[in-house]
Structure formats: C-alpha cells, structure tokens
Write a structure and sequence with these properties.
Blueprint: H1 5-9, H2 13-22, E1 34-37, E2 40-41, E3 53-57, E4 60-65, H3 67-74, E5 80-83, E6 88-91, E7 93-94, H4 103-106, E8 110-111, H5 123-137, E9 145-150, H6 163-166, E10 175-179, E11 184-187, H7 189-194, E12 207-211, E13 218-224, H8 228-231, H9 239-254, E14 258-266, H10 268-279, E15 286-291, H11 296-299, E16 304-306, E17 312-314, E18 329-331, E19 334-337, H12 372-384, E20 389-393, H13 396-408, E21 420-423, H14 429-438, E22 441-444, H15 448-451, H16 453-460, H17 462-465, H18 471-476, E23 482-483, H19 494-503, H20 520-525, H21 529-534, E24 552-555, E25 572-577, E26 580-584, H22 629-645
Parallel strand pairs: 1-5, 2-6, 7-14, 8-9, 9-10, 14-15, 15-18, 19-20, 20-21, 21-22, 22-23
Antiparallel strand pairs: 1-3, 3-4, 6-24, 10-11, 11-13, 12-13, 16-17, 24-25, 25-26
C-alpha cells in the first residue's frame, strides 16, 4: 500500500475517537495530573480538529473531549488546572532537522545576527554585542571572544566586517565571528596571528582568504577550506561545561514550543556525550540523533572484530540500535550529505548559476561531496538493513543522486521505508513524481525564501528560485513533508517557519514562488504530524489524542486565526514534555527540573537503558561546513572504511 500525505494526517483518527469514548467512562481510580481547558485546543487531527479539554496522567493524554466531561471525571484535589482563556494549545513542535549539538555552544557566544534574528543593523552593533558578551561572561584577557550569525548582506555598510573593525576594541583577545552560513568567520589580528594567517599564507583550494585592497594582507574573513581547519583548533568547552550547558541549550528549543530536537549529522564522540547526558538525567526533551554516515564504523565499533589483520568482520546486527529511546536519546537513521548549500554556492545543480561560482568560476554547477557510486552502495546497504536514510540534498543534481540511489536500492512506495530527503530545495517538478514513485519524503526549508530568497533570485533566476521548497506542489501530489530550521543556520522558531511557508516573502518583499504557498494548517502539520511520522513516532507524538505523550505547547495566540503577518510574533506561554513543564514565560515560576533517570514515559515497544561511553572534545558540527578541506578527506576515508567494514553490506 502506498503511504500518502493524507494517510499521515489521519493516522490518529481512531485514537481521537477513542479519546471521546474515554471521557464517557466511569470515574477513574486515580485523578489526572493536569487538565487544560477553556480555550482553543488544536489537536492537529483531521478526524477531531478541536476539543474543549484534555486530561493528562503519567505523561500521557488520558482524555480529550467536552470540558464538563473531562472536569467531572478527571479532576481531583491534586490536579493542576490550566484555563487557557485567550491562549491556544497545540501538540509540541517537532524539530524535523537541525543540529542540536550547536545549541550548548551558542548560549555562550555573542549573537551577531541581523534583525529580526539578532540586534545587528551595522558593524558597530557587532562590536557592541561582542563587548556585552565579554562583560557578561567575564572573559579574561587572552581568551577567545566568539560571536555567530554574521551576515554582510544585511549590514548597513554593505561590506564585510574586517580585522580593522575589531582590533581597536579587542586588543588583548583573539576574536572570531562565525558567518551565518557556518562556512566561515571573521577574525581580528590577534585571532589571525594565533593561526599564523599572514600575507604569505596561500589560499587553499576551495577556500577564501579575504585580502586588504592593494595588498596581500589578510582582511579577516576566512571561508570554507581556509576556515574549517582553523575552527577545529579553537578551544572548546570541557565535557563538564558542555553537560552544564545542556540546560540552557534545551531552553532554546523549549522556549519556542519544541519538545523533540534533532542532532542531524552526529559524530561518534557526540553520541557518546549525549548518551552520558541522558544516563545522568541531563536531557529533559527527546533528542533524535542521525549518525553521520562516515562515522558509522566508529559509532558501531562494538559490532566489528577482525578474523585477520586486514579484514573487518561484522558481529551482530547494528540495525537493532535504531528507533529505540534510551534515556531520551534515540538513533533515528543514518545521515548522508550529498552536496553543500545554495546560498553558499556549494550545492550541486544541473544548470550553471547565473552569477558564477563562489570564487568567480564560470559555468558553475557545484559538485557532489562524495562519489555517486559510493553513495549508491551505502544507500543500498542501509536499505537492506532496514535502516532509515536521511539525505542532505539541496541542488537538483544532488537530488538526482538520491533518486538514483533509491532506485538502485529497490526502494518503492508502499515499502514504508520513510527515507527522507533533507532540504529538497532546488527541485525540478518531475523529481516530485520520483518521490511519489519511491515513497521519498522531503523535509523542506521554507525559511530560505525569507532569509536568502533575493540571493536565490539573483543566482538561479525566477523559474528555479520560485520552485525552492515546493511545498504546495508536494501537497498536491500527496507527498508527506515536514519543515525545518536547520539550526543554527536559522534560529529555532516554529512560528517564523509557519509564516515563511504561508507567505514565501523575501527580505526585499518579493514573493518567492507564489504558487508554492500553503495554508496555516498545512504549515503546522509540517511541524507536528509529519515529522512525527518521519521519525516513526506517530503513535506517540504529533497530535493531541488519547494515548499519546502529553508533549504540548500553549501559544499566546492562535496561529489559525491571527493575522498572517502577526504569526512570527506569536510567543510561547508554556511547554510541556510528557505533562511536565519544561518552559514557562513567567520566569518567576521558572521551569521544572528534568525527571530523575528512569522516569521517562516509555514509548510503545521501547526500552530505556543507560549507556555510558567515552567522550572526546566537541568541535563545530555543521553538516556541510564540516566537510571542507581535511575534514572532507577524513569523511571520505570514513565512507570507504564503512564499505570495507561490511556493516551496510
């Protein structure tokens, strides 16, 4: 049977009807822990779009229906009652794709992002943000000053930040301000000196060292292969510091109503770290990890042994490690990365960009990050092992590689593989037909139409730019799709995602593909129902139904009735993970500490086992950016090792 978008949206229908029946039963032996009523409750279930009240017990929704029935049958002396008033209850938002391991680091850095994401309009604002961070964090002389979100295209000066802008203000500290793409940074003179970047330093292949006019002196900006080896050497927080930073890191998500986050290209040491965090009770929201394909031999090293000095032998079945929560962490599938980013001109297209390549190349179409044959072999191996595949593909040529790999692997609609094509941005219309045939599901990135829509128009032309993240066309073909932030490329902000999918309005006010706009309800489903399905968690998450986890968010306004341009301004009042508050807008109330180890509500068929592991220093983890220069060579070697290991044979 072919799985369609409608199948996904109505999967909870029977549960919803069961919820109504449940409210008519005799009074339960135990009272509810929580009842929410008296306002708009949007269930995200087509069979029962709204209810008047819900009751929560032991982390799950136990009743959903008429307010009087729920209150009479479930209210007790210890039940917490929440009357919504003008607020709106929805299921908790699910991060369909992002990089959670960036969050602990970002909370210690200065936000140098342009408005509306950050406070920056001009270069003096960047300096002010960095200075404020130095003061707030009491950064000593000689220590690194870090910022993120720098975007020259949005500065009033319409030029790059340089070391000369930074040097007078930070004479005693090295400074690094990360580019919004995560593919580069601007360093001050002290920072450049730390890494011996001078006038005599050659520009590496595939990289950029910006030079001062009329000389060979570095101006401060380093990109791609000139940047990545340097960033890897910047001192990182210790493991204990990273563990402590997990609390504010999770608040980045919880404060926006997210109850499940994704670490979307995880390295072995990061999985070890997250396992330790879960086993010690540091995770209070669910984390779905997608092991980066080149790291699979390291991650599943316990399944490998040698029968001689040269040959690796697989012992056991590593596929059993997937889709099982252990202390709020699960491995959700393997992450493939096919190309780079369209705004950075490192994606892979079939037709040249109109504006040339990142270094001025003519007839530039980009290139894949890995050989097509390698991708096909590993794609087939993972499919045969029944392991879900998440493939990063932005350009249409990269998407062709994914489609070809799926065809060679024998994937077809109705097999319920649920392979996801992350981003699926610069598509051709006929590629959606291939998605239907193969049962591939996209996770779109509609915020690109706002943040870089004008850039895409210049680089791609109207026809191609207007078909970026073609959500309406996918909906018309019955293709289940989610939507994502790709944090920290863009901030965790579900309401901005909804607005971008509904309006597709660029920063310059251009509608980037008016025919691809979707309605608010469809945009909300791309943050709830469909990502739950993509994660194979539709029986536990994505809608407000009896029996599902009480992962919930209270919004100040109802996005279904608010004026469209007010949607990005809708704020979160309270976020619940399994019925427990993990964020409240009233800071005096604060938010509850995570439950102690072992109290997580079990997913159906799940098992929760603490699993410690050795850890290693954590570096920047951006799914495209990390694959530059030496890091790309290491990743390619890892994929060859994976082929040799037969783990995915």
């Amino acid at each position: 049977m072919t799985i369609t978008r409608r199948d996904v949206l109505v999967s909870g229908a029977s549960a919803a009807m069961g919820g109504l029946a449940g409210t008519a039963a005799a009074r339960p032996a135990q009272d509810a822990d929580l009842i929410i009523y008296g306002g708009a409750i949007v269930t995200m279930n087509e069979a029962q779009p709204s209810v008047e009240a819900i009751a929560v017990k032991d982390g799950r929704i136990v009743a959903a229906g008429a307010q009087n029935d729920v209150l009479v049958k479930w209210k007790g002396p210890s039940t917490r009652l929440i009357e919504l008033g003008g607020h709106t209850l929805l299921p908790g938002f699910i991060d369909a794709h992002g990089h959670f391991m960036n969050a602990p680091r970002v909370v210690t850095w200065a936000n140098c992002s342009p408005a509306p994401v950050g406070p920056v309009h001009a270069i003096p604002d960047i300096v002010a943000a960095l200075k404020a961070n130095v003061e707030a964090r009491k950064i000593a002389k000689g220590e690194w000053v870090m910022g993120y979100g720098y975007d020259a295209t949005n500065l009033a000066e319409k030029r790059d930040l340089t070391r000369l802008d930074l040097d007078p203000h930070f004479p005693d500290n090295p400074v690094m301000v990360i580019h919004v793409s995560n593919h580069g940074a601007v360093l001050n003179s002290s920072g450049l000196k730390t890494f011996n970047v001078t006038a005599d330093t050659p520009t590496p292949a595939g990289g950029l060292i910006a030079r001062e006019p009329g000389s060979n002196e570095p101006a401060g900006l380093l990109m791609e292969t000139a940047f990545m080896p340097i960033f890897a050497q910047v001192p990182q927080p210790s493991e204990d510091e990273m563990l402590d930073l997990l609390k504010p890191a999770q608040q980045i998500y919880a404060s926006k109503g997210c109850t499940t986050a994704q670490e979307g290209a995880t390295h072995a040491e990061e999985i070890d770290f997250l396992r330790k965090a879960g086993a010690t009770g540091r995770l209070y929201m669910d984390i779905v990890s997608l092991p980066f394909v080149a790291e699979v031999p390291k991650i599943f090293r316990s399944y490998l042994t040698t029968d001689n000095a040269d040959k690796l032998v697989v012992i056991g079945d590593p596929s059993k490690e997937f889709n099982v929560y252990k202390d709020r962490l699960k491995l959700g599938g393997i992450k493939f990365v096919i190309d780079g980013s369209p705004q950075g001109k490192t994606a892979f297209w079939t037709k040249p960009l109109l504006t040339g390549g990142p270094n001025g190349e003519k007839d530039w179409v980009g290139q894949p990050l890995f050989p097509k044959e390698t991708v096909e072999k590993l794609y087939s191996g993972a499919t045969q092992k029944n392991i879900q595949i998440w493939s990063h593909a932005n350009g249409d040529a990269a998407i062709d590689i994914v489609i070809g790999a799926a065809e060679k692997a024998g994937v077809k609609a109705g097999d319920d593989r649920r392979h996801v094509v992350v981003h699926s941005q610069c598509m051709r219309p006929e590629q959606l037909d291939s998605y239907v045939k193969l049962g591939l599901s996209p996770s779109f990135f509609t915020e690109h139409t706002f943040f870089w829509g004008d850039v895409h128009l210049a680089n791609l032309g109207e026809e191609r730019a207007f078909f970026i993240s073609p959500a309406k066309s996918a909906e018309a073909k019955g293709i289940p799709f989610s939507n994502h932030n790709d944090f920290m490329v863009t901030p965790v902000d579900p309401m901005l995602m909804v607005w971008s999918a509904v309006t597709r309005r660029s920063k310059d006010g251009v509608i980037i593909g008016p025919d691809e706009r979707i309605d608010v309800m469809t945009a909300l489903k791309a943050l709830t129902v469909t990502p739950a399905w993509q994660y194979r968690e539709e029986n536990d998450k994505g809608s407000i139904d009896v029996g599902k986890l009480a992962d919930l968010v209270i919004l100040k306004q109802n996005p279904l009735t608010a004026p469209i341009d007010e949607i990005p301004n809708i704020t979160v009042v309270e976020t619940f993970k399994e019925g427990r508050t993990i964020y409240h807008v009233d800071q005096k109330q604060g938010w509850l500490e995570p439950a102690s180890v072992g109290t997580q509500v079990a997913s159906r068929g799940g098992r929760f086992v603490a699993d410690d592991g050795e850890t290693a220093p954590l570096g920047c983890r951006c799914c495209d950016g990390r694959l530059a220069g030496a890091a790309h060579g290491e990743a390619l070697a890892g994929m060859q090792a994976l082929l040799a290991s037969n783990l995915l044979a």
